[in-house]
Amino acid sequence: MNRAHASIDYNTLRGFHNEYEFVKQAILADNSLTEYEKTEAAESHLNISVKYPKIVKCYGLTQNASNGNYMLVMSRMDLSLREYLQQNHNHLKWKERIKIAFLTINALYQIHEENSIHRDLNSGNILYSQFNETYHYFHHAHGSLFHYYSYFF
């Protein structure tokens, strides 16, 4: 069932209307998906990222000419939740831990409101932006019935 997946390409693009120093690309790397499914996955993220401010902002879709993979051009995020917790576990108060859990649950709720599901929720696909110390979530979907999401916080 889990045919679509995202990987992070840490090659970055400079400047987007001078709002961000970098943007990050997520690659729809599953070659078993049809072109239509890949395009629908990208469109789904674009739509949800506009609707919900805590879903990481997506600026567009591009295709890698060398391998044909589709890429979403998104805001840069700094750390995964796993890395953030490893670096800060001694300093985090319970209030911050509860905030992380609440925001993750809220993002899942928003995605479920769109009749979508998460298929691989783990601390490696939840990311944090140190730029403005806010939590954002990345939505990555495929197909019309089942969607795959990664989150950025």
TrEMBL record:
Pfam families: PK_Tyr_Ser-Thr (PF07714)
Key words of the record: ATP-binding, Kinase, Nucleotide-binding, Transferase
GO molecular function, one term: ATP binding
Gene3D superfamilies the UniProt entry points to: Transferase(Phosphotransferase) domain 1
InterPro entries assigned to the protein according to its UniProt record, in alphabetical order: Kinase-like_dom_sf (IPR011009), Prot_kinase_dom (IPR000719), Ser-Thr/Tyr_kinase_cat_dom (IPR001245)
Domain Protein kinase: 1-153
GO cellular component: plasma membrane
Record's protein name: Kinase-like domain-containing protein
Species: Rhizophagus clarus
